[in-house]
Structures are given as C-alpha cells and as structure tokens.
Design a protein that fits this description.
DNA Cyclobutane Dipyrimidine Photolyase, subunit A, domain 3; about 45% helix; 19 helices; Serine Threonine Protein Phosphatase 5, Tetratricopeptide repeat; Rossmann fold
Length: about 450
C-alpha cells in the first residue's frame, strides 16, 4: 500500500490520451524494491494499459566527486538489472535531470517523480513542473513519515518533533510489495522522443572518465553500492549488532553501527523497510527503540530543517543565540590553530582526531559519535566560527559518501548550536556545547585508532 500522504500533484494537467508510456523520473529513490514512486508508476501504467519507462539524469551535482559517483553508479547498475527483470526499461543519460525528464515526458501519459529535500532537488522539480505539459505526481519514499505530515513548521529540536513523529510513524512502517507489470517492454520497443545518449552501466570507469569530477577523492572498497549491499548490511546489523545497540552505539570500537547512512543517502534502501525489519528482529525492545530514534526522529529532524530553513547550508541559518555567543567569543584565544589544509591532512596534535580524519579520507565514513567530536574540535581550533563552519562543510561534503545530505548539513550546523540549547559558558564556544578529552574515556580509543589504520591500509 502507498499511503496517500506520500503523494502530491505538482502539475495538475490531464493525463495525455495519446501517451505511449508512464514515465518515472528516478532521482532520489535509487532502488527497484520498496520504492513507492516506482510502484505508483506501475499501478498507473497498468490501469492505462501502458508500459513504464524509468529515467535517471546524471549531472554535475554540487561538490560530488568520483567517490560519490562510483558508489551511485554501482547502485544504478543493480537497479537497471532489477527493472529489466520486471520488463521495465531504464534510460540513464548524462543530462540535467529535469531536462531529461522533460524531454521524455513529451510522449508520456503522465510523469511520476520521487522526492529529495535539498535546494537543488527542489529546483529541478519546480523547473519541470513549470514546463511539463502532462500530469506530474510526486511520491515521497525516503522518509518514514512525510515531512509536512509530521510538522508544518521548522522544529527547534528532536524533543519538539519526537512526539509528532511517534504518534504517526506506525501507520507508515508498513510492507510495500512490488506489483505485477501488465505491459512489459524493452527500451528498443519504445519510440522515444529525442534524448541524450544512454550510458552503459557495465562500464562505470568509462562513465567516470567522461564526467567532469574531482578525481582526487576516488572510489573506496569499504562500501559497495546498491540494494544488495544495503540489505546485506541491514541483515548483519540486525543479526549481530542490534541486540547491543543501546549500550554500544556510542563506542566506535564496539562495531554496532548499522553503516546504512551511505545507502540511505542515495536512496538505495528505504527507511521504512529498515524500520519494519528492525521491529520484526528486535521485538520492540530498548535496542530497537534506540535505533528507530536515530533512523526516524533524528534523521527526519534533518529533513525538516532543510525543508523549512532557507539557506540551510550557511552560517547565517544557525539559531540567533548560537551566532551571538560564538561571535562574542570569536576573539578568544584558541589552544591550537590549524588551516583547512592541515585539518584535511590530519595534521593536528590530537592522535584520535587525526584517526577520525583518516577514516573519513580513506573510507568515506566516520562513526557518528566521533563526527560530533571531529566537528567540535574544528570549531575549537579555527580562527573564528565562520571559518570553522566553511571548513567543516567543505570536508564533510568532499570526503563522506553521505556528504551533501540533509543529515550532513544538519549535523554540521549542530556543532554550532542547531537543535541544541545553551550550556555553561566556555572560552571560544560561549554557551554552545563543547566536547573534550572525556569523549575518549568512554570507549577504547586506542582500539579505534588501530581499526582505522587497518581500514586505511586495506584501501591502499
């Protein structure tokens, strides 16, 4: 079942009577299973007696590099194979996504799209809606509770969103099965409008070579892209880590993290599917509750932030109290000062901070507890808060596989006081929360360093 709250009409135009297919413009939900946008397109196509065409536009996404594109294209190759098995053709081309969707909509009875929350994704959809001449329907499939259903305003903190989410979430944690495809087709069967050349997903290195990308940040081995890899990680987490998640989640050496954030970022797995599986495995115990808090409340607080906050990627979007206290203490003496290049190279006095940076550079990942410490120390060791914000956001978006994400933008801003409250006044931070050496007394930091060194060596 597709919950009606997930569906919005972006262009209220008639269904084209002479349309030859139903178009699904895939962009955020990069998966063939548990994808409500795809299933709505299949349902509409079956009712019209038409095939479904899925398209994906590959473009120069802001700050994306070879690491990000390699991971994404691995997943899309898997999507292509799964769609082909259902008799659904897939056209992926190098093109601004909204331009490709507009071109292919010329022969579509109607067009379906999924939903991302970043400004560039909203701009793509707004542009398409203003130019398309058939019905355009958006289906939200990458949060558990649809954003406007959960709240109609920007929420101050998790504590204000949590009761709204908890009251609604059970209705949205439900199975979504793939429906039958009545009219099967291949790409060669469709008389498509003129469109850019299809990319061959069996040749990912060649695709990376033709794209204008930052190649200094290359592909990694630690995470393989795609639905299969995502579900394999989910199963391993549920079997081995969930039973101790509540106690071990803040201990990087405990290996109880789900490692699903890269897959959620690219829509390679549905958060509703994860939540459903966690509930079945955990029998609603404390560990499952702690995991669902992170997966739903915390993650969807980030979606709320970027949706309702204009300029969510800027220092100016921080709460006024946080900017005021940071600026009051901007002239405080710092215990250490580093440049962005020194931070990026992991050349600080702090062995543990350097290890966290190494993990980020080498593998595209960092344990969430260390991400908080990592961010707080950049603020502590930079000339001023605005410089620290720019440094953090740049490193975050460049090296993390799940950078350039609503969660990432929100986590960076949390370092500077977003979704938090004033604490006791300290040098440099003012009343913004600090994190100090006690962070490393709560887990085996030396074991973490050794693990990172081993992971980095494996990537060489």
């Amino acid at each position: 079942m597709i919950e009606p709250q997930r569906i919005q009409t972006l262009k209220d135009a008639p269904v084209r009577e002479d349309g030859t297919y139903v178009l699904y413009w895939m962009q955020q939900s990069q998966r063939a299973r548990f994808n409500p946008a795809l299933e709505l397109a299949v349902r509409e196509a079956n009712e019209l007696g038409l095939p479904v065409l899925v398209c994906f536009g590959v473009t120069g996404f802001p700050e994306a590099n070879a690491r990000h594109y390699d991971f994404m294209l691995q997943g899309l190759a898997e999507v292509e194979a799964a769609l082909d098995a259902r008799g659904i053709p897939f056209l992926i081309a190098e093109s601004p996504p909204n331009d490709l969707a507009l071109a292919l909509s010329g022969k579509a009875a109607l067009t379906v799209c999924d939903r991302g929350y970043l400004a560039v994704q909203r701009q793509w959809r707004d542009t398409l809606a203003s130019r398309i001449d058939c019905r355009l329907v958006q289906v939200e499939g990458d949060v558990v509770v649809p954003v406007e259903t959960a709240s109609a305003k920007h929420e101050y903190a998790a504590r204000t969103l949590r009761p709204k989410i908890v009251r609604l979430r059970d209705a949205f944690i439900a199975e979504l099965r793939s429906g039958p495809v009545t009219v099967k087709a291949a790409l060669s069967d469709l008389a498509l409008p003129r469109h850019p050349e299809r990319l061959d997903l069996s040749k990912i290195p060649a695709i990376l070579d033709r794209l204008k990308l930052d190649r200094a940040v290359g592909p990694i081995r630690r995470f393989a892209g795609g639905e299969g890899a995502a579900r394999k990680r989910l199963k391993a987490f549920l079997d081995k880590a969930l039973p101790t998640y509540s106690d071990g989640r803040n201990k990087p050496e405990a290996s109880v993290a789900s490692h699903l954030s890269p897959y959620l970022h690219f829509g390679q797995i549905s958060p509703a599917e994860i939540a459903l599986a966690a509930r079945k495995a955990g029998e609603n115990g404390d560990n499952t509750a702690a995991f669902l808090e992170e997966l739903i409340v915390r993650r969807e607080l980030a979606m709320n932030h970027v949706f309702f906050s204009e300029g969510y990627d800027s220092y100016a979007a921080l709460p006024a109290w946080a900017r005021e206290t940071l600026e009051t203490h901007a002239g405080d003496e710092r215990p250490h000062l580093y440049t962005k290049a020194q931070f990026e190279a992991g050349e600080t006095h702090d062995r543990y901070w350097n290890a966290a940076m190494l993990e980020m550079r080498a593998t595209g990942y960092m344990h969430n507890h260390l991400r908080m410490y990592w961010g707080k120390k950049v603020l502590h060791w930079s000339k001023g808060p605005e410089e620290a914000f720019e440094t953090l956001l740049s490193l975050n978006n460049r090296w993390f596989i799940d950078g350039r994400d609503a969660n990432s933008f929100t986590n960076v801003s949390w370092v500077f006081g977003l979704h938090d409250r004033p604490w006791g006044r300290q040098p440099v931070f003012g009343t913004v929360r600090t994190m100090g050496p006690n962070t490393f007394r709560k887990f085996d930091a030396d074991a973490y360093v050794k693990t990172v060194e081993r992971l980095a060596e494996a990537e060489e």
